[in-house]
Amino acid sequence: MAQELREEFIRESFQDLVDLRTQVQLTYWSEQHFITKVLLDKLPFGEILSHTRFYSYIDYTLDEVIGAASHLLTYWRLSNVTQFDGTPILEQSLFYDDTFLWHYSAPSYREEIRSQIHSGRRVRFLSRFRLSQTEVDVEFNEIRIQTTEGDNRAEGDEF
């Protein structure tokens, strides 16, 4: 009876799971390939973050990310999710695929990226998310213009 109640609770509480194997824009490192939709929606993979949007995300959304990550950790514990060797899942890392960044995301933000960079502002994107039993880690990278000596054209100017 207790096992049935536990399984029903898990089904009702974690019905918004997303299978990472269907998220072709993401690469993941973990034995576990499920993540809650709420957490995935809080991670701005594929978005180019202007100065304002970046600090807004840092100041106002990171607490929500931590809450959603805790929810996923609870799912792991209650579901007895394990690695191939039977030990509990200890972490999960997600990476935004570079191909999608440069061929799909960046071109749709092309003018905004150019404008921000030429105005001296930083342009960032979420490159990695890592969840472990002890920490939540988000990593952002920056888009920059690179020039070579004697070349007035910025590398990647054609995108």
Could you characterize what this model shows?
The protein is an alpha+beta fold. The chain is 42% helix and 21% strand. The strands form two sheets. A four-stranded antiparallel beta sheet has the order 2-4-5-6. Strand 5 and strand 6 (136-143) form a beta hairpin.
Protein traits:
159 residues; single chain; alpha+beta; two-stranded antiparallel ribbon; 6 strands
**Helix percent band:** 40-55%
Main beta-sheet annotation: 4 strands, antiparallel
Q: Give the averaged pLDDT, no decimals.
A: 86
Query: Unreliable runs, pLDDT <50, ≥5 residues?
Result: none
Share of residues in strands? 15-25%
Any idea how many domains? 1
Give the structure's gist in a few sentences:
The protein is α+β, with helices and mostly antiparallel strands and 159 residues long.
Helix/strand layout:
Layout: H1 2-13, E1 17-19, E2 26-29, E3 34-36, H2 37-42, H3 51-78, E4 91-96, H4 98-108, H5 110-118, E5 123-132, E6 136-143
Antiparallel strand pairs: 1-3, 2-4, 4-5, 5-6
